[in-house]
Amino acid sequence: MSMPTDQSADRPGLAASGQSGLSSLWLSTAGPAPLLPTLAGDCRTEVAIIGAGYSGLAAAHRLQQRGVAAVVLDANEVGFGGSGRNGGVVSAKYRLSFPAIAGAYGLDIARLMHRIAHESVDAVEELVQEFGIGAAGFARVGNLKCAHTERSSASIVAEAEWLQRELGDRAVAVLTPAEVAAETGSRSFRSGVLTKDAGAIHPLNYIRGLAAGLAARQVQIYEHSPVTEMQRASDGVSLLTPRGRVHAQQVIVATDAWSNLSPATRRFRQSIIPFRSAIIATEPLPPELNARLLVNCRSYTETRRMMKWFRKVDGRVIFGGRGAFGKQESMAAFDGLQHGMCALFPELQAVRVTHRWSGFVGMTMDQLPHVGRQDDRISFCVGYNGAGVAMASMLGRYAADFAMGEQPAVGLLDASRLKAVPFYPLREAGVRMVAGWYQLLDAIGR
Ligand SMILES: Cc1cc2nc3c(=O)[nH]c(=O)nc-3n(C[C@H](O)[C@H](O)[C@H](O)COP(=O)(O)OP(=O)(O)OC[C@H]3O[C@@H](n4cnc5c(N)ncnc54)[C@H](O)[C@@H]3O)c2cc1C
């Protein structure tokens, strides 16, 4: 198959990051991958799902619960995309703040979006429990948003107070600079907002556990089975792969930032900008440092536009962020992350970085994910803007309901709001220009 792709550097699969001498902490600590077949021959099903990440498998799970036959096809291994590479921060958020949503669309819409966001974290918890995925280590450790300037401090405190007052959100609490310093071990922050019900997870064990659990329930999941073409017929849609085809009544597209892998999903390629996001992990910290840094093992995010985030996993600090990282994985980008990490935690200068990896997040024009119907045969859920662990676990569920002809209330996430990117061929330059501008604003504290 010809896979014209911006992401060809990563194409060989999860081990791809190893190709360039880089490796993911998740890959080196995950349990075994489930043994799954490649599609060979033809079959018929009610719903075919393209993509075996959280979106695709959450959709498959919903269909399985409803007694609807489904087949899942992935071009690579389960978890090849964001679902096997992410930071494992399980949060109830969008890139748009709730006050901004209320300001533009009204309080009722903000309430609905807030409810969906919180249900998405519940969705992860439910899946982990239902399939007994203990190795995912899911826990509601909380997320602490740390303000890097007085200006950002005023903004996050005002937002937290708004959430408490207008949406009755009791999970958020404002922390003083001293409390943030005690929590993080860093004196770089002006204040913090704790969201107590956010979680953290081992992302690859989560997706592998889902796949294993669904396969044990006879859901057919095929790896290394790229859909190269969708052919419409009067009685459904045929999905072509190199060694077989699936004929389905309904199709769900769940390819997020990887929608450019094949022309079959080209409609989504026009609407989603893949943006590289990178992560480093240190060696296990010496005991004295381990006892001082990130003591509550929450997830932590910064308020910079080019947001950095960090966690502690098994005594290691993992530190990630987005930037003008470009098409290929580059050591300069990882060095930049390490520099940012040591600026916050100078003690980490003496600690080795042992893992470096990256992937693509799928950005949309309105900074929101979207779910719903494209037409009478095709539904989709895509565009998580880098916050998809919880949301994809939820929107896959909705996508299955849409495919079954239902109309769940999804507010601003509605499919009709997914817009094509204008001047799509220029997106690479655009991404780099915007990222560079944001980095400059961050650097000068604006
Ligand atoms: C480095 C990084 C860090 C992140 N950190 C976080 C975080 O901490 N918290 C958070 O909430 N989110 C995070 N995210 C985002 C999150 O991982 C994604 O939003 C989420 O995994 C999207 O899941 P998905 O199932 O929609 O897509 P993916 O997991 O990307 O799966 C898409 C799948 O589609 C397959 N595919 C594509 N085209 C075809 C085709 N033609 N035929 C068959 N299969 C195809 C691909 O092989 C891929 O497996 C991060 C992402 C990255 C890359």
UniProtKB/TrEMBL annotation:
Pfam families: DAO. Keywords: Oxidoreductase. This is FAD-binding oxidoreductase. Signal peptide: none annotated. It comes from Herbaspirillum lusitanum. The lineage of its organism: Bacteria, Pseudomonadati, Pseudomonadota, Betaproteobacteria, Burkholderiales. Residues 47-401 form the FAD dependent oxidoreductase domain.
